[in-house]
Amino acid sequence: MFLVAGVVLLTLIYFLAAHTLKEGTPEFRVIGTNLRVGNVSCPGLPSVGTVDEINAAIGDCLRGRRELALRAFLNHSLAVLLGLTVVAFAFGYAMAGRVLSPLGRITRTAQRVAGSDLHRRIELGGPDDELKELADTFDQMLDRLDRAFESQRRFVANASHELRTPLAINRTLLEVQLADPGASPELVQLGKTLLATNERSEQLVEGLLLLARSENRVVDKKPVDLAEVASQAVDQSREEAQAKGVALGGARAQVFVQGNGVLLERIALNLVQNAVRYNVAEGGWVEVVTEPQPGCAVLVVANTGPVVPAYEVENLFEPFRRLRTERTGSDKGVGLGLSIVRSVVRAHDGSITAQPREGGGLVMRVVLPL
């Protein structure tokens, strides 16, 4: 606005000054013959000459002086405009910075909060204007979020103890009863059934607790070899795979990522276990591959298995969702494996995608930043 005002003002002044010089400059006429004229402002004016010669010389002199005055006026005005431009930009930058600095402070606080630091507050001072009202509202929202997350953490900790303890006691009692050599066959069969049910409940509780913990971002990250994590998951699933006649393979190149080793192992283990359990009855295979790529590391778990429609792929990542109607009475899990995987991957700022294989099975692709 300062710059536009200066340009308009300069244009008006220039035309007004030109008009004033044109209208206000007197014209001299020499009457007579062979007159002598003194020259002070017009050095080129002839001192002796005819009337026409002297009049023409005076006219040229006046026009030259007018042009010199206009040029000098224009140069001075441009210099003033240049200075005004610098002042306008400096003043505008200072004012914009002063006005927008509270917004920058709010933005920086929001970025720190996005990094799971809910204890940060803006605490903006100054007059009670719209920006301070916005900052105070944001602080109040952070207070409520902090209390909610703290309540969730306490609940998870309490649930971890309250749910695991009775299940562990039940498992111990059942194992002791099954170890009794004098137990009847009916009692042994009942104990095994209850032990399997208890084990399933323990898996469900562990999955729920891990899912609740993994919704947050991982703050304490360390270098983890993704190939080693995948190899450990393969080793832990090998016995189950051999029992089901599923071959495990795949090339695993060494690549390090920043994250939590236990959670990353859970990603690989859940994917491999799902690939083994949801496979064909005969001639099945699972390939676990790790490879480095520019700026990221990739874990791919591919397997044979039943045909999965493309519209059902995304639903597999929802809690308690399995293929088709397998919801109860299944020994393949409690339906939290892929939900946990997606939560842990997101906690590591990564992504996971699933694609159906032609002929049956899935290709799970996990991308983690280095």
Automatic annotation (TrEMBL):
Task: List, for all copies, the residue spans of the domain called HAMP.
Answer: 97-150
Q: Which reaction does it catalyse?
A: ATP + protein L-histidine = ADP + protein N-phospho-L-histidine
User: Is Translocase one of the keywords?
Assistant: no
As for subcellular location, the record says: Cell membrane
Q: Where is the Histidine kinase domain?
A: 158-370
User: Which InterPro entries does the record cross-reference, listed alphabetically?
Assistant: HAMP_dom (IPR003660), HATPase_C_sf (IPR036890), HATPase_dom (IPR003594), His_kinase_dom (IPR005467), HisK_dim/P_dom (IPR003661), HisK_dim/P_sf (IPR036097), Sig_transdc_His_kin-like_C (IPR004358), TCS_sensor_his_kinase (IPR050428)
Superkingdom in the source lineage: Bacteria
Which parts of the chain span the membrane according to its record?
73-96
Alphabetical UniProt keywords: Kinase, Membrane, Phosphoprotein, Transferase, Transmembrane, Transmembrane helix, Two-component regulatory system
Q: What class of enzyme is it?
A: transferase
Q: What is its EC number?
A: 2.7.13.3
Its Gene Ontology cellular component terms are: plasma membrane
Q: Which GO terms describe its molecular function?
A: phosphorelay sensor kinase activity
> What protein am I looking at?
histidine kinase
Which source organism does the UniProt entry give?
Streptomyces tubercidicus
